[in-house]
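Structure in, sequence out. Go:
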């Protein structure tokens, strides 16, 4: 059973009856679900995932103390701890997993403070630009089974996508990195005989290209170990470029392959430029991604954000 389905089944079998019996009416004052770190929150868990931090359980997201006091929160923690430790052939852990508690009783404000640095999800443009995609994804992934007052889900919705100026700023920065690493430095490093540096440049190009694809789709790119899987789930045609990007990373840099790679870089650059033009995001008419980066940056409406360094969101 996949982790999210396991969490919901465990809640329905044991969590909801516990709330109805011992805390009648309190479910309407909290959110219940499974959100945060872990492949199960992305729906990417498999047999390998069960070797750590995989267990039956769910999260009870509580309001601050003015609505749910410490005494009630402590009682909920005790009640959660008493729930059955075995379910569907899996055992709950006796200690908190690495990285902190992923299940159990959590204040909503603590959850969002931990993930994005703001208890209510309200972020300045500078804060949006600083946050890595995977942190925002952990704040908005998984499933919410119920949310009586809607507070948790309201914050979740606010964080579910970048503000447009932030998206454009980050897009501009990653376009510039694509240009520098792939269109410029890869072949120059090889000409210098620096094959290691050339491969680093190609890695930078692949990462920047993937970021651009996710930004074009208005989605967050997950932590690197799930990036390719998520890329293959993007809408066409962007999802179809995953194989080309994997090839750039996993092949040698001999005389034949370096020419193939350089051509592939230009093919990917052309595909990105076509997406930018189709989306009305650039006025540049050329194959140089750097020029398109500056054109995208010109579309940022907030002058303070627009005038930040081009790489402010990278």
């Amino acid at each position: 059973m996949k982790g999210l389905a396991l969490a919901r089944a465990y809640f329905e079998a044991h969590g909801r009856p516990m709330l109805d019996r011992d805390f009648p009416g309190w479910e309407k004052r909290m959110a219940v679900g499974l959100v945060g770190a872990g492949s199960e929150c992305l729906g990417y868990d498999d047999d390998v995932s069960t070797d750590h931090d995989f267990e039956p359980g769910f999260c009870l997201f509580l309001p601050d103390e003015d609505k749910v006091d410490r005494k009630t929160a402590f009682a909920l923690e005790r009640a959660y701890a008493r729930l059955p430790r075995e379910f569907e052939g899996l055992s709950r852990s006796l200690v908190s997993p690495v990285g902190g508690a992923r299940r159990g009783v959590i204040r909503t404000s603590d959850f969002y403070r931990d993930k994005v640095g703001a208890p209510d999800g309200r972020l300045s443009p500078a804060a949006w630009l600083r946050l890595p995609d995977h942190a925002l994804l952990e704040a908005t992934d998984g499933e919410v089974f119920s949310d009586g007052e809607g507070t948790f889900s309201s914050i979740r919705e606010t964080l579910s996508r970048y503000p447009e100026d932030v998206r454009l700023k980050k897009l501009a920065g990653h376009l510039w990195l694509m240009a520098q690493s792939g269109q410029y430095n890869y072949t120059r490093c090889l000409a210098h005989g620096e094959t290691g540096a050339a491969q680093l440049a190609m890695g930078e190009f692949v990462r920047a290209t993937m970021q651009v694809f996710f930004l074009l789709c208005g989605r967050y790119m997950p932590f690197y170990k799930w990036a390719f899987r998520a890329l293959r789930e993007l809408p066409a045609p962007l999802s179809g470029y995953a194989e080309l990007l994997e090839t750039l990373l996993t092949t040698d840099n001999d005389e034949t392959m370096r020419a193939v790679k350089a051509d592939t870089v230009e093919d990917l650059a052309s595909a990105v430029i076509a997406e930018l033009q189709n989306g009305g995001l650039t006025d540049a008419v050329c194959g140089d991604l750097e020029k398109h980066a500056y054109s995208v940056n010109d579309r940022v409406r907030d002058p303070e954000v627009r005038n930040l360094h081009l790489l402010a969101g990278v």
